[in-house]
Amino acid sequence: MVIYYVIVNIIGLLIMREDKKRAKQHAWRISEKTLFLIALLGGALGGIIGMYTYRHKTKHPSFKIGFPLFMLLHIAFIYIILK
């Protein structure tokens, strides 16, 4: 389970970096739906780190609130499983 979370969070970080790069190049973008899906699957922490590292999506309330909520849900989920 730890390996899964490490990998999905690395993916979350990298996907935020890639979307920011594409935004600067005015290229085809990664959909917000995909970004939220990665966060929902456990990559919220990586997405949050990517948001603030690359200054991407930081003005969008849905990301500023949604990603931390997904992260809290995953923390609660892990706590319940391990308890």
UniProtKB/TrEMBL annotation:
Pfam family, any one: DUF1294
Keyword entries, A-Z: Membrane, Transmembrane, Transmembrane helix
InterPro entries membership: Cold_shock_CspA, DUF1294
Gene Ontology MF, one: nucleic acid binding
Recorded coiled-coil stretches: none
Keyword field contains Membrane: yes
Domain of life where this protein originates: Bacteria
Transmembrane feature ranges: 34-53, 65-82
Keyword Transmembrane annotated: yes
Record's protein name: DUF1294 domain-containing protein
